[in-house]
Amino acid sequence: MSVQAIPAAIIGDTRVAGDVVQSVYDPANEDAVAQLQEADAAVVDQAVRAAVAGYAEWRTVSVEGRQKVLRQMADLIDTNADELADLETSNTGIPLAQAHGRHVKRAAHNFRFFADYIGQAEGQIYEQDPAFLTLVRRESVGVAGLIAPWNAPIALGGMKIAASIAFGNSCVIKPSEQASLGVTRLVEVLQQADTPRGVINLVNGRGAITGQALVVHPQVDRVSFTGGTTTGKAIMSAAGAHLKPCTMELGGKSANIIFESADFETALDGALLGIFTNNGQQCLAGSRILVQRSIADRFIEAFVERARKLRIDHPRSATVELGPLASAPHRDRVLSFAAQARTEGARVLLGGERSTKFDRGYYIDPIIIAAPSNDISACQDEIFGPFASILTFETPEEAYALANATKFGLVSYVWTQDLMLAMEAQERLESGVVWVNTPMMRELRAPFGGFKESGVGAEGGRACEQFYTREKTVTIRKSRAPLQRLGLG
């Protein structure tokens, strides 16, 4: 792949140039694939102003008109799926089969989902007093500032774009400076749909420059961010100073609880998928595996053996199961947790080193540790890689206590064939999502969001409707009865 120029912005259908601030590398071979140009505050202002202008027209388009455009966008994504998946893999190291079959496919599905959803919107009418009719309607809010993460840029960036414009808003999206290729092309593809100019805009650059300018811009009405908790806190603080509502989908340290009543092979498959999918780089990873002691020896042995056989390969290989991590600094950070775990008394059961299969690329072997307690850093910090920490428990009460002993609360996994135990577990676990006997199942009509430091707000049908619209109460007098008359002397 030749070195591409990633524009500082796409405003309407116009590419805007800026200063080059960094190179973008292919995680599979460390080759430079792009030069990232940055949007400064002035360019961000241009993008937001274009969004304001686009909103003025888009907000008047009927539901049927918006549905048509959203479905058109989904078709455009499908038509360009091969190119989008290829860019996503080049920029992130996500295996091509996953980029195509999960990420790009999910992006198209997002647009079709919201096209269907807005056709079922409901209002409210109240007639407590027979002389008055009160109705509550939802209306669009304006311009949404959207910030997408580097681990699933097209899937999650596409979700934000689809949700914001479905309800009649315009948007300015900023992808991570580390993974801008796919989202930049996605926006160019979406511009081919029949939307007014300025409905979808993009700005590229670093968070401290471009992201900050977007978040604090006075004409940005909503901010939606997916990424790390530390960055999310900074964004929410900046937006809060301007009283801007935010949704924050942040970090996780999810417990994957394997009860002795689980279907052993299914739970084993699910635990492997939960931590090693997407190269382990996902906020919902089941990174703390809690195994009931009666089956612990058998489960740990099987889990380690299966992980040892994971096919580490180039992300474009047809048989790859674990590709490279997204960057050299991130690879080094993930590996540092294995070294630190040793100093904290953990036993490293597998991995902890760079993979020796390739001379170039950010590959590591899968890492599995037996943790001495839930208090070590590997059990408390979000590592965001193919790194599983295993703990054991005796009773369900102990499992719930371990699972909840974290500052995060995004998702939890439960494996059991005991229905009563499953029902008890979902009540006791402190997370926004609980998956029982399945890994990573998204129902887009349901909210997806975290408790505690895993975020604020949620994404999903109703949750997005509430965030990207505002309620207006209208009371109409329908009686001819005279009003009280003042000032008659």
Description:
The chain has 489 residues and is an alpha/beta fold. It folds into two domains: 268 residues, Aldehyde Dehydrogenase, Chain A, domain 1; 182 residues, Aldehyde Dehydrogenase, Chain A, domain 2. Helices cover 39% and strands 22% of the residues. It is built from 15 helices and 23 strands. Strands 3-2-10-9-8-11-12-22 form an eight-stranded mixed sheet, sandwiched between helices. A seven-stranded mixed sheet has the order 15-16-17-14-13-19-20, sandwiched between helices. Strands 1-5-4 form a three-stranded mixed sheet, with no helix packed on it. α2 packs antiparallel against α4 and α9 packs across α10. It is globular. The N and C termini lie far apart (86 Å). The mean pLDDT is 97.
Q: Short description, anyone?
A:
The chain is α/β, with parallel strands linked by helices.
Instruction: Categorize the overall geometry.
Output: globular
The portion of residues forming beta strands comes to 15-25%
End-to-end separation: 86 Å
CATH topology of the largest domain: Aldehyde Dehydrogenase, Chain A, domain 1
Low-pLDDT segments: none
Number of domains: 2
Highest-level CATH class of the largest domain: Alpha Beta
What structural class is derived from the secondary structure elements?
alpha/beta
Radius of gyration: 24 Å
Q: What is the correct CATH architecture of the largest domain?
A: 3-Layer(aba) Sandwich
Mean pLDDT: 97
- Biggest beta sheet summary: 8 strands, mixed
Write out the strand line-up for the largest beta sheet, numbering strands in chain order.
3-2-10-9-8-11-12-22
The count of DSSP E runs of length 2 or more, i.e. the number of strands, is: 23
